[in-house]
């Protein structure tokens, strides 16, 4: 397979583009964002009881940040339905019913584990003066987390089907899988940002409650926000690195198949140019740790948590 054949294979990749079959109109998107945000704001506000903290700016900031985060998460889910439906169908045809059920169970366990961790972490030695605050926090986490369930399932099934293509569809399959991985991992990073930003506002709200300021600060230190970021960093690294590594392994197998090295005479200028071109198309020209996708998904939680930790200080200034 020479350079022209590689080019022809690339042109057959319009199979990737069909994953984008049109987004909902801007009016519908705006309506969804405003409706979900307003509904969430109303739900987290109702039945809060009577306490002085309800009249503070921190109470408004947290409700607004949490509600906007839920609205953005569901808007992102709406925008992605049409994008991912074709890819999900193609992945599904390569898996048996038992495989799909197994990955669905794994997805449920992963999402439930993250939810329980976040919920229990938010209850550590903290008694809110706001009525039913624990339920409000659980509802917000659940509303954001449920939007990531289809993406986790699609990521797992896509990584499981790597290499299960017809020989003449390997390049198109790899490029399509890469597009799916990029979308999934980008969504995870955005969901993490949506989850961490309100955490800084939540700490500011906790400190605004009536009581001993030092005791309140000890019960919800700024380091907790950083720990949330570290937790998400570990989760995203555990998801990102193995999947990207598996994809790169399949991509290198294709490169070795198309441009094998059997004798020294094979190492011609055309062979070198063709191999480098194919490696560039398959994003193999950069190491896994230097890949922007890896850096983005792994370091986004840490950077966001550091910024979110400054929210209380900014609010007080």
Automatic annotation (TrEMBL):
The chain crosses the membrane at residues 27-48, 60-81, 101-119, 140-160, 180-205, 225-247, 293-315. Residues 1-22 are annotated as: Disordered. Keywords: Membrane, Transmembrane, Transmembrane helix. It comes from the Bacteria. This is Uncharacterized protein. It comes from Geodermatophilus normandii.
